[in-house]
Amino acid sequence: MKKGLLLLLFTLFISLLVACGDDSEESNAESGSEESSSEENGSEEASENKSIDSLSIGFVPSRDPEEIITATEPLKELLTEEMANLGYDIGEVDITVGTNYEAVGESLSAGTSDIGLIPGGTYVLYDDGAEVVLTATRAGLSVDSDDPKEWNDNKPTEASDEQATGYRALIIAGPSEKGQELAQKVNNGEELTFEDVNSASWAVMSSSSPAGYIYPALWLGDQYDKTITDLDNVVKSDSYGSSFARLAQGQIDVMVTYADARRDNEDKWQSEFGGEGTIWDETNVIGVTPSIYNDTVSVSKNSEIMDEDLKAAIQEAFINIAQTDEGKEVISIYNHEGYQKAESSDYDNERKAQELVQNQN
């Protein structure tokens, strides 16, 4: 009896050990399966990024090419990191500076460059092969209105904390009798006629200047179906400083310039140009052009790697880069301060401007 009881207890003990061992193996097997599954999922997540061997960027030579190459070198790493976060592993970022503006536009059209940082004028000339995705932003002004009276009611114009995608050209009347006459009509809420503006003497810049000629010519076309060549009394200045000097001394009645030019020449108005009062007291805005849009980040329509997802990632990457200190330093080579998403229609006035220039030639 005792031997039989001992044998039974021993058998039960062995069975219990075997059962525990099986549970442990099953647990280990399940754990191993979970770890294997986790590793597979991690591998799948890591492989979700799309690989691109090379992303090429063309810059226009608005500064010395070597200076641009040096200043934009950090962009390679910044863009690679941002694009990785957005789903793209870039093998190489290739940066080149075109021999001229047209060369960068042509490379976008041909698909030999994927991205181009180009002015609005270059973009519209090559928009058959280039697509704008971003507009550069710069510090704006305290006034941004189509109504010249608002500029006069809110003098002096100050810098703004807001970023702007473009800048205005202004038609400014000076302290001469005719200049004051035109300003008074505007400030009284009266519309100027073409006879009014044609009775004044004007100073303009060369015919290739956006703010000093092209956009004021568009303004005359929109307002009166006329252009600068229809004015009876026009002189060309070699600089905005020359125009301000003529305006201060009453040699001309009206000048055209970029919107913050009075801020830039405020100190010189009396000390160098001969103004009797301040530039804000003696000048008034009588016309405001449509906004002249800033430079673009454009992509190639004919690049082999370009699609909607990549375009969206490029937009996001440049916007994010511009918000970092290192990124701000890089894009400052072009006086850019940030980027906003753009539409082709934003540059319709630039298309009109280019048409005007071509007709003049």
Walk me through the topology:
Blueprint: H1 2-46, E1 50-59, H2 65-85, E2 88-97, H3 101-110, E3 115-118, H4 120-125, E4 130-141, H5 148-153, E5 159-164, E6 166-167, E7 169-173, H6 177-187, H7 194-198, E8 202-204, H8 210-224, E9 234-236, H9 240-248, E10 254-258, H10 261-264, H11 268-271, H12 279-282, E11 284-288, E12 292-293, E13 296-300, H13 308-321, H14 325-331, E14 338-341, H15 348-360
Parallel strand pairs: 1-2, 1-3, 8-9, 8-10
Antiparallel strand pairs: 3-13, 4-5, 4-13, 4-14, 6-12, 7-10, 7-11
Helix pairs in contact: 2-13, 2-14, 8-15
Please explain how this structure is put together.
This protein is of the alpha/beta class. The chain folds into two domains: 50-139 and 294-360, Periplasmic binding protein-like II (D-Maltodextrin-Binding Protein, domain 2, 3-Layer(aba) Sandwich); 148-290, Periplasmic binding protein-like II (D-Maltodextrin-Binding Protein, domain 2). Helix content is 48%, strand content 21%. The chain has 15 helices and 14 strands. Strand 1, helix 2 and strand 2 form a beta-alpha-beta unit. Helix 2 (65-85) packs across helix 13, helix 2 runs antiparallel to helix 14 and helix 8 crosses helix 15.
Order of helices and strands: HEHEHEHEHEEEHHEHEHEHHHEEEHHEH
Strand content: 15-25%
Secondary-structure-derived class:
alpha/beta
Please name the CATH architecture of the largest domain: 3-Layer(aba) Sandwich
Secondary structure tally: strands: 14
Backbone shape? elongated
CATH-level-4 superfamily name of the largest domain: Periplasmic binding protein-like II
Radius of gyration: 33 Å
How many structural domains does the protein architecture include? Answer: 2
Number of helices: 15
Mean pLDDT: 89
Query: Helix proportion of residues, in percent?
Result: 40-55%
What is the class of the largest domain in the CATH system?
A: Alpha Beta
CATH fold name of the largest domain: D-Maltodextrin-Binding Protein, domain 2
> Which oligomeric form is depicted?
single chain
Main sheet properties: 7 strands, mixed
Low-confidence stretches: 1-10, 27-46
N- to C-terminal distance: 123 Å
Protein name: Phosphate/phosphite/phosphonate ABC transporter substrate-binding protein
Keywords: Signal
Organism: Allobacillus halotolerans
